[in-house]
Specification:
There is one protein chain. This protein is an all-alpha fold and about 230 residues long. It has one domain. It contains nine helices and no strands. α7 packs antiparallel against α8. The longest helix is centred in the first third of the chain and has 30 residues. It is globular and about 50 Å long. The N and C termini lie far apart (about 45 Å).
């Protein structure tokens, strides 16, 4: 048993909690604010790639963790698009369509996921192209997180998602900085570092627009001096 795989498997699996929190948040808010809709679809696609990628690298715990999280992520993605369409059309909420659509999306997503796990076994081994392709997903993720930042600045409110989830994904990004080095996936490491930085920016923006907490680097540096003012204003 490889400890890094076990730890990464926990990082892959634990987000199911935040996906469920996101589902509860969007059902309660019935609107999407402060994040890019396209990013939701991309993250579902990325989770599917992870099933192939981790099985290809013989990381079984990571595969198990990402499989459960991907199911909840597919359900959340459907709800995001459902409520966006509902708001734009002005139609009333239809709980039957919402539930059946979520279940159908999860079923199709997991069937595709099983196929990708099998494909990952068929191409098992460390290949340069898996690092390159995975880094492509990582670079794209950084772009979508940046798009989320722009959406939040535009909307000036954060609705339909879990803030704790973003905090967790930021800590996950810090872990990936180590994990990709362990896997010797250097292109993925460089992209993962950028994701970590952009997620920090996103968290600071959510703190500002959702909770009214403004973080300041200047005040942080002053805090290091004796009798300095507080970081938060």
């Amino acid at each position: 048993m490889h400890i890094p795989d076990v730890v990464n498997g926990l990082f892959q699996g634990f987000p199911i909690v935040f996906e469920i929190l996101g589902i509860l948040a969007i059902v309660k808010d019935k609107k999407v604010r402060g994040f890019s809709i396209s990013s939701t679809a991309f993250f579902v696609l990325w989770s599917l790639w992870g099933l192939f990628y981790f099985n290809n690298l013989a990381q079984p715990w990571s595969v198990i963790g990402s499989f459960g999280t991907g199911a909840a992520g597919a359900c959340y993605s459907f709800l995001v698009f459902y409520y966006v369409r509902l708001e734009r059309s002005g139609k009333p909420e239809n709980k039957k369509v919402m539930v059946l659509g979520s279940l159908a999306t999860m079923a199709v997503n997991r069937l595709l996921g099983i196929w990708l796990v099998v494909a990952g076994s068929a191409y098992a081994g460390r290949h340069w192209w898996t690092d390159m392709l995975n880094s492509g997903f990582e670079w794209a993720t950084a772009v979508f997180v940046f798009r989320n930042c722009l959406a939040l600045v535009r909307d000036k409110e954060y609705k339909g998602a879990s803030f704790l989830g973003v905090v967790f994904y930021t800590s996950w990004g810090a872990w990936n900085v180590f994990y990709y080095l362990y896997l010797r996936q250097y292109w993925s490491w460089a992209a993962g570092l950028l994701i970590f930085v952009t997620n920090i920016a996103y968290v600071s923006l959510i703190l500002r627009y959702k909770f009214g907490v403004k973080l300041s680097l200047k005040k942080l540096l002053k805090r290091l001096k004796p009798n300095a003012p507080a970081i938060v204003s």
